[in-house]
Amino acid sequence: MALFIAIVPTQLSAQASTTIAATGTIGVYAIVCDGPCPVTPTTTPPVLTASFGPTPQPVFTLTGRTFPTSTVTLLENGRILATTTPLSNGLFQFSVQNTSSRIAHYGLQAEDSSGVRTRVLNTTVSLGNYLETFLDVGYLPSTMQTSHENIRPNELLVMSGKAAPLSYVEIFEHYSSSTVMTVGSGKNGAWATSLNASLLGAGVKKFSAVLKYKGSTAVSHPVVVVVGERSKRSSLQSCAQLPDLNNDCKISLADFSILSFWLSKRSFPGEVDINEDGKIDLRDFSILAYYWTGK
Predict the structure, then answer these.
(1) In what order do the strands lie in the sheet with 79-84?
(2) Do residues 63 and 92 touch, judged by C-beta distance below 8 A?
(3) Spatial CA neighbour of 142 closest among 203, 213, 219
(4) Per-domain residue ranges of the chain
(5) How far is CA 21 from CA 4, 13, 131, 182, in A?
(6) Alpha carbon of 221 to those of 68, 91, 144: distances in Å?
(7) At 288, which helix (H) or strand (E)?
(8) What is the rounded CA–CA span in Å between residue 271 and residue 247?
């Protein structure tokens, strides 16, 4: 008679001419044989397998800055994915899981309590093969309003808006390609400035508020002001802040028809390229649908 010692799982069962005694869940087994023990036990231990749970999903974290009293919306191909409220310093963050593709197209927009929205900031993200991807988009564009749509040369033009707190806003005039002035925003992100319209000269003026952050530039919706013989106050939200292609202060089938005409054409007016990516495609229609009034 011989004694064979083995460490095997407790599910092991005795065969003829073999007696097995077990201790513990996985323990020491004493196998007593009638004659000389074989080199290995006559019973083959079961194969042990391990499970490590579900495969981790990639996480994409996006951060940025805008005015603290806003509601920030995250868009994916024009579709609302999530909303959040910034901290008091204007910082906001989104974490996206289970992304549908390794390359994702996102848009970000802030809206104040009066319903005035910033221009959509678009970004394309390549997620690669990493489990975590981080992107800081910097500043969202500022909002911008003017006191007048039409103004006489001797009147005061007031420009105002909301941007990331304690940031510098450049007032840029498109037709002259010049910066009219620079103004700082307060702790709540609000900014305002004014100038005599006579300094602008007569004619049509097109203004944008420009924010610069670590090499990136965020440009507001343009606002058009006509300096001439007439004087007309602006409404609360300028039509220039909408993707209003026929300038009727509505987003309707007329705008849809204009955009459809230029779909997939190689040459088109700059104002119909709503997301300013150099082409007219489904993403422009998605943004148009987001602003839809239908009236």
Answers:
(1) 79-84, 71-76, 103-111, 121-126
(2) yes
(3) 219
(4) 2-33, 59-139, 242-295
(5) 11, 10, 48, 87
(6) 19, 22, 7
(7) helix 282-290
(8) 11
Q: What pLDDT score does 49 carry?
A: 58
Kindly give, in sequence order, each residue whose CB lies less than 8 Å from that of residue 135, ignoring residues fewer than 6 positions away. Answer: 60, 61, 62, 63, 123, 125
Interatomic CA distance for residues 158 and 184, integer angstroms: 15
For 17-72, write each residue's pLDDT tens digit: 334 444 444 444 555 555 565 555 555 655 555 555 666 667 788 999 999 989 99
CATH of domain 242-295: 1.10.1330.10
Q: Quick one: average pLDDT of 145-158? A: 90
Can you tell me the distance from the alpha carbon of 147 to that of 144, in angstroms, rounded to the nearest whole number? 10
Mean pLDDT of the chain: 79
Q: Does domain 59-139 have CATH number 3.40.50.300?
A: no
| Three-state secondary-structure class, residue 241 | helix
How many CB atoms are located within 10 Å of the residue 81 CB?
14
**Closest Cα partner for 163 from 142, 183, 191?**
142
List the alpha helices (DSSP H) in 48-144: none
The Cα–Cα gap between 144 and 266 comes to 31
Does the predicted TM-score (pTM) go above 0.85?
no
